[in-house]
Amino acid sequence: MFKLTYPFYIYTIAYPPFTMAKAKQDIILRDRLQFTLDAAGDLGLVYGRIDLSDYVNVVKRNGLLVKDVYIQVRDPNHNITGNTNTGMWSIIFSDQLQAIDSDGFNAFKVFVSSRAYEDAADVGIASPDVLYIEEWGLMVQANALENQTRNHVHNIYPMRDYHPGGYPVVSDLLVGIAVDANAQDTFLDAATLEVDIMLIAETTSVTEKQMTQLLTQAQDL
Prior knowledge:
With 221 residues, the chain is mainly beta. It has helices at residues 159-162, 208-217; strands at 8-13, 27-36, 43-50, 62-74, 102-113, 130-144, 147-157, 167-169, 173-180, 192-205.
């Protein structure tokens, strides 16, 4: 018989297989975005912009075919745990101390899109012009002071599932970030974190019809 001791973690993780550039014409693009949570550890939807102007040209009908996306959240300022050697971030790095018979929740959401949504809650796998979504969740349940259960969920909805043949763009891409934090989790209060993003893409020619459609989609940028 197994005895569960505090804390007990339950993980639900969906990791895609990691694939790097395979074709000679593949381009690897990297960017780094910084965001600061508010005094309660929350963050309404904010965007970072990935500049693709070196690769797209509307007049020449040059576009970029995005083939894959990878995201990493980092804590280089050591806000969460003082992890000065690694700068590592995880949703489970938390000081949630729930009162007896109460629950607490933390949630992070990062997505890549060619359309600017007003609310991250509206972004899902059925949302138009979304290339990639990644979500982290932590639920803490306290039945007694010495008995705390943590449920960790990490969902990845990868580019290769959204658009297995690649997604053509003729404008910049947006990276959306939103956070809901438990009021009792002080580690996230006013924390400054970073998101690293890597795109695998190749240049492509865009037809006049495709250009019209893509420019219409990009008007929200």
